[in-house]
Amino acid sequence: MRVALWWLRRDLRLRDNQALSAALAAAEHVVPVFVLDPALWRSPYVGEQRLAFLLGGLRALDADLHARGSALTVRQGDPAEVLAQLLAETGAEAIFAEADHSPYARARDARVAATLPLHLTAGVTAHAPGTVLKRDGTPYVIYTPFSRTWRALPLPSARDVLPAPERILTPEGIASEPLPELPGAALFPPGEVEAQRRLADFAQARICNYANARNVLAEDGTSQLSPYLRFGMLSARQAVVAAREARAATRCESARGADTWLNELIWREFYIHVLHHFPNARRESFRENLRAIAWANDMEDFAAWQAGRTGYPVVDAGMRQLAATGWMHNRARMITASFLTKDLLIDWRWGERHFMQHLLDGDLASNNGGWQWAAGTGTDAVPYFRIFNPVLQGEKFDPDGRYVRRWVPELADVPTKHLHQPWTMPEAMQHEAGCIIGEDYPAPIVDHAWARERTLAAYRQARGATAQT
């Protein structure tokens, strides 16, 4: 064919882009298109920092396209209407896009495919939903057997990673709308070039110690690639290849670090597969026997959690890191989510929405899966009776207090012995540290031991009510 549309969604890259490759193989000229979809732009789950990161990634991609003789076409409106108009304008005969697996994306693509020549390729995951199944053809809901089957399938190698095309021929004169301007977060420069730089840096050095360092809150021990994977500035396939190559390399004393990171990539795929097969998990607890929990849902408690003013330092540090940077250390995500659902007995959906409104890497499947894991309501969730103690979590994963002191500066001079439970400081020590509990820093908004018993009772009641119906 003469012209094809390449419809970008969450694949803002030129390297290892299967939709782009399919379009280039099918047509002489390819029109890269991004549709500003009002349904997503105005969603209550949208985050301004994530939008800014997306827009920055689109500008970076446009620059990469210009270097190859092409340009990004931006249009705003309903995707089916916009794409139909572009087909008419350009004479394109097909639309190529990378399949997405959220409930909205699948419904949108089905609507587009009903009237337009839409061709979907793989790419969001290394193994597409529907390819990792039990022997009876049903989907997995437990991570460990899913992981075993995932690993047993043919895994990508460096030969499978598609190179970026040297040139893309695009017809001239196609009208494009300007991208909105939003201030971005300096911590994560958007774009494929930065994604490749970070992957190389991580895979060459820090991956070796990943298993040991990834839970230390104050250390730069994680890959910090999640925003780039979220928008496809880095392909899932290339990330898997990097993990496998690092595991096979001799530069690390042990393969444990690379193996642990590969496990995290598989967790990402697991949650995408779960949401694909069980879209109802988007709105309700996966475990039917925990759908009737009598949440307390205290608005003042929720506001204190959002603001990082709960009186539990490690919880507050995580929430303040999120507000300031659009990112939160994964261990802190688990701690803050457990605190909201298990200590404050607030519906996990409240926290899920708040994270999506702030996270640069906010991904529906991973965020939903992580919150339901913490709440004990999900597929492969932490047992409902396992409740993180926020003091012990802080002492274990921030033993010298560097993380807390960075994000909760009013505690900067509190002795480490009392840092994770500052309310235990004698009055004289509070004055000496310049931190009066109840004035400079709040007292705990809930007693953990009491909250634990309240939550266990609420979960038992929900389970019992379900058993009787």
Tell me about the largest β-sheet. 5 strands, parallel
- Described by its quaternary structure, the protein is single chain
End-to-end CA span? 59 Å
Beta-strand percentage? 5-15%
Which bin fits the share of residues in helices? 40-55%
- The total domain count is 3
Which architecture of the largest domain does the CATH hierarchy give at level 2? Orthogonal Bundle
CATH topology of the largest domain: DNA Cyclobutane Dipyrimidine Photolyase, subunit A, domain 3
Give the low-pLDDT segments: none
Number of helices: 21
The CATH class of the largest domain turns out to be Mainly Alpha
Cross-sheet strand order for the largest sheet: 3-2-1-4-5
Shape type: globular
Q: How would you spell out the order of helices and strands? A: EHEHHEHEHEHHHHHHHHHHHHHHHH
CATH H-tier superfamily of the largest domain: DNA Cyclobutane Dipyrimidine Photolyase, subunit A, domain 3
Estimated radius of gyration: 24 Å
